[in-house]
Amino acid sequence: MKTTALPTAIPTAPATLVFMLVAAAWAVPSVAAPSLQSADAAQLWPRIFYSAAQRRAIEQARIPAEPEAISGTTGPTAPSEPPRFVLQGMAQGRRGASAWINGAMLEQGETIDGRTVQIEAQVVRLRLAGQPDIVLRPGQQGAQADQAVQDIIPPGSFYKK
Q1: Could you tell me which of 50, 88, 104, 155 has the fewest CB atoms within 10 Å of its CB?
Q2: Whole-number CA gyration radius for the chain
Q3: DSSP assignment of 35-86, as one string?
């Protein structure tokens, strides 16, 4: 059985490369980094959040302007449109019934724009004393002035094959 002796010398190419890299790193003049507690350190990093002044400006921009300031006139205004009611869905269970009208969940007897919600088996009835009831099925919309209830999807959108 023949054994070979392991080389005792370190290979010169990798060792020389490591020493050159270490020497080059020591030779680079280092720039004094500011302390994390100083004001200069904060300016070196990009800002993630808005400053207090920027937040105030954003909040002021979100506040809607007064209608008179926009138009510039204070003349008579047109009568406001009566509210529209859109029934997105309804659910009935052991604990009661709920209806989603204009994106809000309402339960039996609650009011929306002065009308009382009455949930029946297939429809939701919106009652107001002295006014005709608005009767909606899921997916329909109606207003106080409308006599006819409209579907959200216009007629003719679907065709039978």
Answers
A1: 155
A2: 37
A3: PTTSHHHHHHSPP-S--HHHHHHHHHHHSPPPHHHHH----PPPPPPPPEEE
**For a pLDDT cut of 90, what percent of the chain falls above it?**
14
Give the three-class secondary structure for 22: helix
Q: What is the number of helices (H) and of strands (E) in the chain?
A: 4, 9
Q: How confident is the model at residue 66 (pLDDT cuts 50, 70, 90)?
A: confident
Distance of CA 43 to the CA centre of its chain: 31
b/e map of 105-132 (b: 16 or more CB within 10 Å)?
ebeeeeeeeebbbbbeeebbebeeeeee
The predicted model scores a pTM of 0.45
Q: How far apart are CA 139 and CA 44, in angstroms?
A: 55
Strands 140-143 and 96-101 come out as: unpaired
Q: How far apart are CA 122 and CA 138, in angstroms?
A: 8
Cα-based angle 79, 81, 84 (whole degrees, multiple of 5): 165
